[in-house]
Amino acid sequence: MSCPECFSGAVHEGTPTGTVTKLHGLDVYVAEPSSGNPPKAIIVLIPDIFGWTFVNLQLMADSFAKKKDYRVYIPEFMNGNAAPPSMLESLQKVIVPKTWYETFSKPYHILWLLVTAFPAIYLNRPGRTFPIVKSFMESLRQNEAAHLPVGVTGYCWGGKHTVLLAEGFTVDSKPLMDAGFTAHPSFLSLFGEIEKMTVPVSFAIGDKDNQVSPTQAKELEKIVLNKPDGQKGECRVYAGYGHGFACRGDVLNDDPKGAVEAEDQALAWFEKHFEGIKY
After folding, report:
1. Rg (CA), the chain
2. Do residues 137 and 28 make contact, with C-beta atoms less than 8 angstroms apart?
């Protein structure tokens, strides 16, 4: 499925404060609690199509770690095949050109988007990348997270993988993740993948999202709310927001309130579901 909005938005300002290391065979961005306290849980942030080095998501990882004393990992799940952030500027000029020159240059930007977008989508198709994600999660659970709760948060491309992980995979009789969150997930197979979930997942979806319509979001919410205790999810629809609002901004709505509230939604969900977990 094509998703032009998967490549839209903006690069945020700021300097990430985490470190880069090698973990279970992958390059990983790591954000540690700024308090100096031991981490009370581990969050794996699965990025959008712009990958693990995208500054917006590294800043978000820093924020998660600072606010809740989590250790946050952003692994390189794409083997160097992430889309370049420069695509954001090109798509912005295609969707909402601000000058006559940007209007005149639209064919150039469309060609550039085609040349860069399709390889990123093809090389990062879930059938190819999910085994890498699952293997990393297994190693993480057996090592760093052997005695800690694990949450997974996924954006756009990463949302698909969050939903797949929620099917209830285990290692050493422990779930690979204890709770999940996803904002504007892409490429979902609705509603079969939602029905297969056995791990509680919180969804944040804009009512102008091109991947999940308001009608589909309502059905999604019905499915996750009707799951048994311990598996129930939630779905919040953000009025006036489109695809990408939680991590890149939205070309249709540049109000950052939605992104702030989506982050609060994720943190509240993890706090709720990590309570009482001991391994």
Report:
1. 18
2. no
Counting every residue written for the chain, the total comes to 279
Would you state the structure tokens that stand for residue 69, as one six-digit string? 């004393």
* C-alpha dist (Å) from residue 177 to 21, 153, 194, 216: 22, 10, 16, 25
What is the pLDDT at residue 60?
A: 94
What's the distance, Cα to Cα, between the start and end of the chain in Å?
A: 40
HEC string of the chain equals CCCHHHHCCCCCCCCCCCEEEEECCEEEEEECCCCCCCCCEEEEEECCCCCCCCHHHHHHHHHHHHHHCEEEEEECCCCCCCCCCHHHHHHHHHHCCCCHHHHHCHHHHHHHHHHHHHHHHHHCCHHHHHHHHHHHHHHHHHCCCCCCCEEEEEECHHHHHHHHHCCCCEECCEECCCEEEEECCCCCCCCHHHHHCCCCEEEEEECCCCCCCHHHHHHHHHHHHCCCCCCCCEEEEECCCCCCCCCCCECCECCCHHHHHHHHHHHHHHHHHHCCCCC
- Which structural domains are found in the chain, ordered by start? 4-274 (3.40.50.1820)
pLDDT of residue 101: 58
Query: pLDDT (tens digit, 9 = 90+) per residue, 217-236?
Result: 999 999 999 999 999 999 99
Residues 189 and 160: beta-carbon distance below 8 Å: no
Encode pLDDT of 10-39 as tens digits: 445 678 999 999 999 999 999 999 888 999
Q: What is the C-alpha to C-alpha distance for residues 119 and 109, in angstroms, rounded to an integer?
A: 16
Q: How far is CA 60 from the centre of its chain?
A: 11
Residues β-bridged to residue 44:
73, 152
